[in-house]
Amino acid sequence: MRVALLVACLAIARMVSATCLGNCQQLYGGSGPDYASCVQDCGVCGNGELEGDEECDDGNLVNGDCCDATCHFEPAGSVCDDGDGDPCTNGTCDAEGDCDSEEAPATTCHEPVAAGRSSLTMHRAAADAKDLLEWKWRGAQGSGGSEFGNPTGGTGYDLCAYDTTGLLASIPVPAAEGCDSPPCWKERRGRFTTAAARETPTERPR
Q1: Which residues, at least 6 apart from 15, have a Cβ–Cβ distance to it below 8 Å?
Q2: How does pLDDT run across 82-95, given as a tens digit for each residue?
Q3: Strands (DSSP E) along the chain, which ranges?
Q4: Which pLDDT tens digit goes with each residue over 143-164?
Q5: Is there a cis peptide before residue 151, judged by omega within 30 degrees of 0?
Q6: pLDDT at 199
């Protein structure tokens, strides 16, 4: 009897949930902040089970994982975390709930605002200690230098090199506190320079 009663209660709850989702669809057209709020009030999106007009339900109400806060697939090309741990690249949603690895520059990367404002020089010497990688940047997207932090403190960086096929290599440039032989960063007249110990770049196979 108790089992039958429990099954009946679950069935009724599912019917109520489906009705609630249908009402949200009818009232708000299936998108927008009002629709999202209505779906959340129904209490079904985020429970890990497909119900009503849900396209997906990954057990949370978080955007950016290819299943949005209203339990619908995020559009193709939407940025997501592909879990590869590479700060130079983003994953992108495939419009079916999956996050695919891409080699396009990550949205957190900053780029020069004009052609020719950034240069990269590499020189391979007979002695490894004299190898040179010199990168100069004379302008960047954003409001100013403050958003880049302070490398003489705790801010580290990753230098990402791309060509038309995608990411070629990523080179970590640690903050001063992470250098093998500090001080590797110096500040002069508001500009930072580094002579960090040689780092091994992570190269992408071609």
Answers
A1: none
A2: 888 888 888 889 99
A3: 79-80, 89-93, 99-105, 118-123, 132-137, 157-163, 166-173, 185-188, 191-194, 202-203
A4: 456 777 888 878 888 888 888 8
A5: no
A6: 53
Which residues are CB-contacts of 187 (< 8 A; sequence separation ≥ 6)? Answer: 152
Q: Label residues 28-61 b or e (16+ Cβ within 10 Å = b).
A: beeeeeebbebbbebebbbeeeebbebebbeeee
Q: Taking the domains of the chain in order of start, what are their residue ranges?
A: 1-57, 118-203
CA angle 150, 123, 106 (to 5 degrees): 45
Instruction: Choose among 178, 206, 204, 199: nearest CA to 88.
Output: 204
The whole-model pTM stands at 0.57
Q: How many residues does the chain have?
A: 206
Residue 171 CA to residue 88 CA, distance in Å, equals: 10
Q: Which tokens sit at 197?
A: 């110990």
Give the residue among 44, 43, 68 at the shortest CA–CA distance from 56.
Answer: 68
